[in-house]
Amino acid sequence: MKFKSPPVNSLSLEFLTEFSIGLEKLENNRACRGVIITSAVPKIFSSGLDITEMCGKSVEHYGEFWRAVQEMWLRLYGSNMVTVAAVNGSSPAGGCLIALSCDYRIMAENPKFSIGLNEAQLGIVAPFWFKDTFVNVVGHRIAERSLQLGSLHPAPEAQRLGLVDELVPEEKLMEKAAAVMAQWLALPDHARQLTKTMMRKAVLDRLVAHREEDIKNFITFVSKESIQKSLRMYMEMLKKRKS
Amino acid sequence: MKFKSPPVNSLSLEFLTEFSIGLEKLENNRACRGVIITSAVPKIFSSGLDITEMCGKSVEHYGEFWRAVQEMWLRLYGSNMVTVAAVNGSSPAGGCLIALSCDYRIMAENPKFSIGLNEAQLGIVAPFWFKDTFVNVVGHRIAERSLQLGSLHPAPEAQRLGLVDELVPEEKLMEKAAAVMAQWLALPDHARQLTKTMMRKAVLDRLVAHREEDIKNFITFVSKESIQKSLRMYMEMLKKRKS
Amino acid sequence: MKFKSPPVNSLSLEFLTEFSIGLEKLENNRACRGVIITSAVPKIFSSGLDITEMCGKSVEHYGEFWRAVQEMWLRLYGSNMVTVAAVNGSSPAGGCLIALSCDYRIMAENPKFSIGLNEAQLGIVAPFWFKDTFVNVVGHRIAERSLQLGSLHPAPEAQRLGLVDELVPEEKLMEKAAAVMAQWLALPDHARQLTKTMMRKAVLDRLVAHREEDIKNFITFVSKESIQKSLRMYMEMLKKRKS
């Protein structure tokens, strides 16, 4: 699966919906046992949630958008397939969540590429299931510091912290991802899937149990004038940087 | 305590029953404050659960066998004694569980010896309390990957992952185990025991609360024709390898 | 904030009460967004709970003392401010708890300074919320071993285990602490505070829910003749060491 939504693969409502439908199709395709997720856009894996979806829209829109974010994560983190992230560019916020939700993370060995849940930098808070996914990968201490600081970790640091499993030169990334996939697919599917479910069920169940509440929280939070202001300022900063 | 059930110290119903009774006796013996667990069989610590107990037997037998596995773990993981594993050989699956359940793990520094919960390789799934014990030692991320891949980690890798605490040359293993035991026994028993209980109670309680359900799950799982077939194939592979 | 209660900054009822009031004042002072905690006493950060408060006193006194210990931790671990511990001396037991409760720990790079929850060495048991705080910093495995052995880790080992985040030469400690503080204060307060709450709420709530029970347990425990004897012996040992 290659993300191709230039310029930065931002997770818009449309992008998320297509991604979830794509995952569902593969999940139901018995011939497909694994998926490698990477980007067709140079230097960016995914820039995370599309801020324009959170800015100056209706309450209904916010709700629909957030449900799509949840849906994508529930499908990806709970996938029966082997999921490998070949992170070939920077991967902040929601982009990092996608990588964290895979079974294995390989990143291009380029210190200019960074990854992390940097929501706090934008004045917003990663939701509890982003946090749970993060803690399951790097442990409580590293997650606590990284989330509070909204850190974006350059690739070498990301590997040291356990945020990604392996670094390889960019030109070898897909070759390595295929090799990892072959290793994981060598296991009998049924036992591997039950094991994965056992490891991830508690965290998945927690969102399922609090899904509507989580949507309401998001709407309330994002509708605040102070948050709208932060997001507008952030978008303007991005625009200036571009030009 | 020396495991001596050639050829591979597999955990048969008889072996488990004797082990549990042995632990109970030591536990009730006020003169005994600690136990070192090792193997009298060269190159093997324990090969794990005896597959012949899970293959072609009655439902009653499966139930009795599984209860004995639970009983052994409840006694060992919940022991008031200081428990040190001197892992002087390979230690897959149930053998690894025994090591994980001790307070401290020393392994012979021989890269040919490996240790891990490799159930997924056999097409079966480590039960939740194997998983809980594993997570308490190596954390969620390492446990998730290792359990899904059914990895057997060579001794140096096992140490890097935190699966064992220390590697020493094989000829110094017992000497080192005795030194570690002396260090742990220097603490006042009562405070040490209460601390151990505080750390392990949640995981022990979880099996106690779901014990009958866990036995039923095991019986249902192991009675499946597909699982029986996997186990038969695995046993034949072992026989061929031997001859 | 500088601890200045010679000879060893032990956490007496008076000290704890003043510390909690100090934290409360800073918390309510909108101009104060962060606090650096260090010691004005050479070679000692804090020696932990004052044993004289637990020895030969009334049941009422024990209850009042324990409530003050809880109060201090609830305020510090749950603080909305950025909290940095500049550990410029040894920091056993309750002193270690104070450091563990901060957002970031810097320690003087002096192998003679040690830190740890060494309660087991005194024949007593660290309460569950000391343990929860410790597990959140170093993970379950390291906490289990360290608590059972009542280990005091020299600074370099403390850093290796993740118990402190960074070591710096003693003369650079405050400079470094100020730099770390500046880095944390660069984040928008609201998002950082909500993130911190999300990470720590489960552990804070657990004490709040069991607070009275925890006080009763402490009173029962500390009133036992065997514990009183242990504490008296420990105090006499300290006195002899001094002279």
UniProtKB/TrEMBL annotation, chains A, B, C:
Q: Which family does it belong to?
A: Belongs to the enoyl-CoA hydratase/isomerase family.
Q: Name one GO molecular function term.
A: delta(3)-delta(2)-enoyl-CoA isomerase activity
The record's section on Pfam families has: ECH_1 (PF00378)
Q: Where is it chiefly localized?
A: mitochondrion
This protein's species is Cyanistes caeruleus (Eurasian blue tit)
- How is the quaternary structure described? Homotrimer.
Name it: Enoyl-CoA delta isomerase 1, mitochondrial
Enzyme class label: isomerase
Give GO terms for biological process: fatty acid beta-oxidation
- GO CC terms on record? mitochondrial matrix
The protein's annotated catalytic reaction(s) are:
(3Z)-dodecenoyl-CoA = (2E)-dodecenoyl-CoA; (3Z)-octenoyl-CoA = (2E)-octenoyl-CoA; (3Z)-decenoyl-CoA = (2E)-decenoyl-CoA; (3Z)-hexenoyl-CoA = (2E)-hexenoyl-CoA
